[in-house]
Amino acid sequence: MSDEPIHHPHDKLFKGAFGQPANAAGFLRWQLPAALASNIDWDHLKLQPGSFVDSHYRHSESDLLFSAPLEESSECLIYLLFEHQLSQDPCIALRLLRYMVRIWEEHRRKNPQASQLPVILPVVLAQNAQAWEIATQFSSLLDIPPPLSEECAGFVPDFTFRLIQLADLGFQAIRGTPAGILTLRVMKAERIARLLDEAVWDESLLLQVPQETLELLIRYILNADIDKAAFDRKVQSVSHPDVRTTAMSLAQQLRQEGRQEGRLEGRQELIIENLRLRFGFAPQGLVDAIAAIHDEAQLLRLHRASIQAASLEDFSSAL
């Protein structure tokens, strides 16, 4: 959705799987009211460009916006907000309202002649280990005296959002495509330390997911806090050779990448320490520039320069 790089493994897995309309449709069609879901043309669900999340929340959530025909004569927008922060947000409805207004404003910008706005169905997918206890009606946030609730109703905006909590869904209760099911099982398992459970390593599902998704799932598991020896034993117990080989190859690759990253960080730290020892300090801008370099040959050259340069200015010219 956004052109910015996605740094968090939760976002990579979520967008990698549910950025595919078939996976999103396979899951969402079971999460909306049946009468409404039956009138959405899920076969023509389309991913829309753009992200509406505030930069303040990018570390804890991401979003996907879809459009689909509704009863063949209208169009609805389905806004899927993926929330993976550790604590519940009782005011998430206020954030949703802000995002929905942005979506409508973008629609107006693209369709200036339109006299009506599309319906938005806001859906929140929460990865928390414990279920949230929050109201899903926007009006619950408003401090309206009970005797005046009817009189005030016409003056305030209101909507309901669908809150899907992985904490409330059993592994076997998750429905959708194989890729969607496994993605949500893995996300649920990550928060309750069960990434090596049989529900996650269900070979009947693993064999049906695209190779790209399989690699995303395994990378996500390996990046989590798991016992690496237990992971190796789990992989060895996988009966299908393709799944077993992919998991073993990725594990080896990530470990090599980790060792290489450690070497590069060590070289960066040594260069910065040399500059501080020789010149008394290292400007933050220079430290940031060194930390952004991941080419080993260049870091070796800069290490020599940190020893030989006559001044910080001379060293900077070597960057």
For the record, give the distance between the C-alpha atoms at the N and C termini, rounded to a whole number. 34 Å
Give the helix proportion (percent range).
40-55%
**Taking strands numbered 1, 2, ... along the chain, how are they ordered across the largest sheet?**
1-2-3-4-5
What is the number of strand segments?
5
The total domain count is 2
In angstroms, what is the radius of gyration? 25 Å
Mean pLDDT: 88
Q: How would a textbook summarize the main sheet? A: 5 strands, mixed
What structural category arises from helix and sheet content? alpha/beta
Number of helical regions:
13
What proportion strand? 5-15%
Low-confidence stretches: 1-7
What is the overall silhouette?
globular
Give helix and strand order, one letter per element, not per position: HHHEEEHEHEHHHHHHHH
Description of the structure:
The protein has 2 domains: 9-168, no CATH class; 246-317, no CATH class. 48% of the residues lie in helices and 11% in strands. It has helices spanning 9-18, 21-28, 34-37, 92-110, 149-153, 178-191, 203-206, 211-223, 228-237, 241-279, 284-291, 296-308, 312-317, and strands at 46-48, 61-70, 74-83, 119-126, 162-165. α1 (9-18) packs antiparallel against α8 (211-223) and α6 packs parallel to α8. It is globular and about 75 Å long. The two termini are 34 Å apart.
